Amino acid sequence: MKVLLTGAAGQLGQALLASVPPQVELIACSRAELDLANPEACRAAVQAQRPDWVLNAGAYTAVDKAESEPELAHAVNAGAPGAFAEALAETGGRLLQVSTDFVFNGEQGRPYQPDQALDPLGVYGATKAAGEAAALALPGARVLRTSWVYGPVGKNFCLTMLRLHALKAAAGEALGVVADQVGCPTSTHTLATACWRAISVEGPRILHWSDAGAASWYDFAVAIGELGVELGLLQQAAAVRPLTTADYPTPAQRPSYSLLNCTASRAALGLEPHHWRAVLAQVLDPG
To answer: For the chain, N or C: smaller number of CB within 10 Å?
Structure first.
């Protein structure tokens, strides 16, 4: 099976590279090698490589910056999957489009089902929703939505919190973190496993994948501090002070509740759920 992977240098891309199944012939493309904002380059890559699958793990993920760069966000998040889908329709390949919980508005207060209607709040979510539609125009394409992605490399909440815990604890200051947005942290390790399984087994066209349980960003930050001390990554954790969304305004509006119902998708993929805090401990202490 030949797979063209985008976003190979990103945090998910690196996890995918580290877990390539033996039956996969991988063509890995970083942003420097394949500009997802260039639809002609995306089409040309498919035409040149003729992959069985494009695993589109690359994305414009700067949620707040997207509000001031909507054209670029749309080009990467919607234009690229559209170009891949068009080219794959000609070459006969398939597409796995990685998407996000931000395609929902967060107002319903119960986990979102894969077949629910989309209602994104900001530019990032809107461009990812458009990318889903563009991908699904290709027969055989699949969408895998996930949430609150973090890992041991790259730029993510977990690594930022480890750094801020150390700085704030040393200064004797509290760390303020939003406590009224609820979702589920998802490790790049488990997400990579789900992606590889999604191109190996048949099932529904739209899949949900996150680690198990629920958390606020405040809960996540507290756990990072506690486990950081327990594992010797921090001498001391900072006190964490809960904030409201109103206390911490951002350019982009975020869903207040974005848990994904993963039950059917886990069954289809044949993967067991693991609680997010247990997975976090494994990420922080891979040995």
So the answer is: C
Q: Confidence band (pLDDT; 50, 70, 90) for 211?
A: very high
pLDDT at 173 over 80: yes
Catalytic member of 112, 124, 150, 257:
124
112 is a catalytic site residue: no
In the chain the domains, ranked by start, together with CATH numbers, are 2-147+187-211+260-273 (3.40.50.720)
Work out the number of other CB atoms within 10 angstroms of the CB of residue 214.
14
- Assess whether pLDDT exceeds 90 at residue 286: no
| pTM exceeds cut of 0.85 | yes
Q: What is the pLDDT of residues 255-276, one digit of tens each?
A: 999 999 999 999 999 999 999 9
Quick one: pLDDT band at residue 251, thresholds 50, 70, 90? Answer: very high
Question: 188, 149 in Cβ contact below 8 A?
Answer: yes
